[in-house]
Amino acid sequence: MSEFARQVESLRPQLLRYARSQLRNDAWAEDAVSDTLLAALEKPQAFGGQSQLKTWLVGILKHKVIDQLRRHTREATILSQDDETDVDELLFDANDHWRDQPQDWGNPEACLGQRQFFEVLEACMEHLPATQGRVFMMREWLDLDTDEICKELAITSTNLWVLLHRARLRLRECLQQSWFASRGQTA
Amino acid sequence: MRFERSCREVTRLVLESQDRELPLADKLALQIHWRICDGCTKFKNQTELMREAMKRWRGYRDE
User: Fold this and answer.
1) Distance CA B16, CA A109 (A)
2) Which residues of B touch A105 (CB under 8 A)?
3) 8-state DSSP, A128
4) Which residue of A has its CA nearest to B13?
5) How far is the alpha carbon of B4 from chain A, nearest alpha carbon, in Å?
6) Check: complex ipTM more than 0.90
7) What is the pTM of this model?
8) pLDDT 10s digits, A21-59
C-alpha cells in the first residue's frame, strides 16, 4: 500500500462517523465512505496538497453522502417513522406564552471555548429523531439551503420548515438539560 | 398591519430567520416584541449562541 493510500485509509473511521451522523443508516454510510475512498484512490492527483488531506476527503464525502440521500429518498422511508411530537405544545401554553421562561445561557465564549461543550452538542444532534437529524445536518453540515434540501429529499417546504423548527427546539432543550442546567448561570 | 406577535409566533420567526431572510414587517415585529418580552429575548440569545456553536463545530469537523 502506498503512503497516500495508508493516509487515506487511516481517515476511514472518522469519515464513517461523519457519514453515519448525517445518514442515520450504517449501510448507506459504509457505501458513502467506500465511494469516497475509491474516488480518492483513483484520482490521487486531484489532491493538490493545498489543503489538509482530511479537508479534501470530507469535501468528497459530502457529495457522496448527498448521492446516498438522493438514492434512498426514492425508497420513501426518509419521512416515515419520525417522531411526530409537537414540541411547541410542550413549550407554550394555550395562550401561546412560555410555560417555562428560557434561561440565560450567559456569555457564549464561556461554553464555546470548551471542548466538552462540543461533545455535548454532537451527542444532542445524535439524539434527534432520524429525519429531523438528517435535515438539520443537511442544513448545518452539508450547508445546503432549504430549496436544495426539499429537492434532494423530495419533500415539501412546509414539511421541511416543521422538521427544522422541531430539530432546533429539541437541540436547544437538550443543551439546556445536558449543559446549561447543570452549570448554572455562567454570565 | 399588526405588529403584535405571541411568544409562540416569535419563536417560529426566530428559528425561520436561521434559514431565510425575514420580511421587513416580521423583523420589525420581532424588535417590538423583544423590547417587552424577557423570555423571547433570552430565546433569541440562545439561538444566536447555537448558531455560533454550529459554525465552529462545522469548522472543527471539516478541517
Assistant:
1) 24
2) 42, 45-46, 49
3) S
4) A165
5) 12
6) yes
7) 0.91
8) 999 999 999 999 999 999 999 988 888 777 789 999 999
